[in-house]
Amino acid sequence: MKRIYTLLFLCVVACMSLWAQPKISFDMTTKDLGYVLWRTPATVTYQFTNTGDKPLVISNVTTSCGCAKAQWTEEPVPAGGKGKITVVFDAEAIGHFYKDVGVYCNAASLPIYLDFNGEVTADAKNYSFTHPYAIGAIRLTQDELDFKSVNKGDRPVIELLVANTSNKAYSPVLMHLPPYLEAKAEPEKLGRGKTGKILVTLDSEKLPKLGITRASVYLSRFPGDKVGSENEIPVSVALLPDFSKLTGQQKNNPPQITLSAKELEFVDLKPNQKKSQTIVISNTGRSDLNIQDMQVFSMALAVKLKKRVLKPGESTKMKITVLAQNLHRVKGTPRVLMITDDPNQPMITIRVKARLKSSEK
């Protein structure tokens, strides 16, 4: 009987060891680089997640061409952890290309193949200067939609210019639009190498609240595309207070916000450094100043504000900390935005410039 129990126990242990396996899941297995300038190295990045329940180890990554060199996360990736494979492609010939990337890891007995494609051109007109932001093979003139401040009833429009550097026709589409945004592409389809625009209209009547509203929309790179950090475009807007109903006494005795600085600069940061600066906020007006709303526009910033209501002549401090480890994930300009009841300055923007040491970027 003991022998039977022992055999059963060994079988269970063996089965559990088979069930507990690493599993690799890529954000995308195919990358369209669009037009690549001859003799100008292009970088392809594949993000992956270990969706298994044992550490994932990549032992080797190969490429189908000597013109492509691969680097990868070499340390074991724990269950739920993330890593990346980076391939630098330095084109040797002009024309269309298709390259394979073989990934050898303990999640599969055979290599897992990724690929990237595009077209090498000697024409310097690759839209990298006129459309500096790339989402796949699509280039844009801006990487965020900032409507700044609006009043109730306004319908501002942002013109997002688009360049198609892929080797096929492309239909510009913004996904996951919130109810207060409308988007229209002109033209609806772009041929290879062609440019167009997306007109994004804000209906301020549909904004959910007074003050700052933030959201994200996503640029579709191809039919059936999914949403993710790679094609995310942040959206921000500030709906200002209505000062049209102020009494004569309120107009003659308004609060007045004064800041010791509206721009901060952090230089030579180390990759994991946290560095802080302080701004003094004062009420130099004649009635109470209310900071009605405050938003931090970056995961690389942390902000502490001691008081939100200041009496005339009173001051408070705002501490702004830069988290250097998150700078590489920043989209748009890191900033802090405040909505106040100062009728002359209802919206205040504090911009933060931060950069790593050049040798440690």
Automatic annotation (TrEMBL):
* Organism, scientific name: Phocaeicola plebeius
Record's protein name = DUF1573 domain-containing protein
Segments forming domain HYDIN/VesB/CFA65-like Ig-like:
255-354
Q: Where in the cell is it found?
A: Cell projection, Cilium; Cytoplasm
> What domain of life is recorded for the organism?
Bacteria
**Gene Ontology terms, cellular component aspect?**
cytoplasm
Q: Which UniProt keywords are given for this protein, alphabetically ordered? A: Cell projection, Cilium, Cytoplasm, Signal
- Which residue positions does the secretion signal occupy? 1-20
